[in-house]
Amino acid sequence: GAGVSQSPSNKVTEKGKDVELRCDPISGHTALYWYRQSLGQGLEFLIYFQGNSAPDKSGLPSDRFSAERTGGSVSTLTIQRTQQEDSAVYLCATSYGQGTEAFFGQGTRLTVV
Amino acid sequence: GIQVEQSPPDLILQEGANSTLRCNFSDSVNNLQWFHQNPWGQLINLFYIPSGTKQNGRLSATTVATERYSLLYISSSQTTDSGVYFCAGFTGGGNKLTFGTGTQLKVEL
After folding, report:
1. If you count residue pairs, one on A and one on B, with CB atoms under 8 Å apart, how many are there?
2. d(Cα B50, Cα A7) in Å, to the nearest integer?
3. Residue A1 pLDDT more than 60?
4. Would you call A89 and B92 a contact, using CB atoms and an 8 Å cutoff?
5. Could you count the other beta carbons within 10 Å of the beta carbon of residue B12?
6. What are residue A64's phi and psi, to 5 degrees?
7. B69: CB partners within 8 A, 6+ apart
8. How far out from the chain centre does Cα B30 lie?
9. Which residues of chain A make contact with B92, given a CB cutoff of 8 A?
10. Which chain B residues touch A91 with a CB distance below 8 Å?
11. Which residues, 6+ apart, have CB-to-CB distance to B40 below 8 Å?
């Protein structure tokens, strides 16, 4: 596609429920990143995928968070048993290769009530 | 870990004024980028500037990688320039785009 696409744009969920956030990368981009931005804060790295290599999961805040990338394309970030502190904007970025210019999607605003 | 500091943290300008935003990094980072986060939260790419100087309209940027800093120049500022400006560089072998602390810019009429 023309740009990085994320869905849904907004998600309101009840505490304790599981949520899935989706990221469709720019066609041909092999690197994919997930970030989290809490209200008024900077961007917190969550996870990085590069091609078929094992992902860098060093930024995931707890074992309730997981992500996968199928066929080197679409990625899904899953948050299990959501907590109120998970409320944030989740941003996905992709780049052509490792260390090259990254482009961000519009984000998914998650609200846990 | 690597720290990326931006200054000033907040800036208020009158429309038409010029400004310089600074990004300092504590260790070597690669392939520095500048982003503008608009009031709707969208991150807009401004510059991909590992080194040297680039210009795009009223904006220009300079990165001196050997001295671990980058500068973003905004000339003849407009109200639409308002938002948060982030610099970010790749660390950890290119696995992680580490973001700076951001500069909140407000341009007033």
Report:
1. 52
2. 31
3. no
4. no
5. 13
6. -75, -15
7. B22, B23, B24, B25, B63
8. 15
9. 56
10. 43
11. none
Cβ-based neighbours of A112, under 8 Å, separated by 6 or more: A13, A14, A15, A82, A83, A84, A85, A86, A87
Instruction: Please list, in sequence order, all residues whose beta carbon lies within 8 angstroms of the beta carbon of residue B27, skipping any fewer than 6 positions away.
Output: B2, B68, B91
Mean pLDDT of the A57-75 span: 93
- Comparing B90 with A85, the larger pLDDT belongs to A85
State the nearest Cα–Cα gap between A77 and chain B, in angstroms: 17
For the stretch A27-46, pLDDT in tens is 999 999 999 999 888 899 99
Residue B92: the pLDDT is 67
Interface of A with B in 12-51 (CB under 8 A): 33, 35, 37, 42-43, 45, 48, 50
Task: Provide, as residue numbers in chain A, all residues whose Cβ is less than 8 Å from the Cβ of B33.
Answer: 101-102
Helix (H) or strand (E) holding B34: strand B30-37
Q: pLDDT tens digits, residue range B36-91?
A: 998 888 999 999 999 999 999 999 999 998 999 999 999 999 999 999 999 999 87
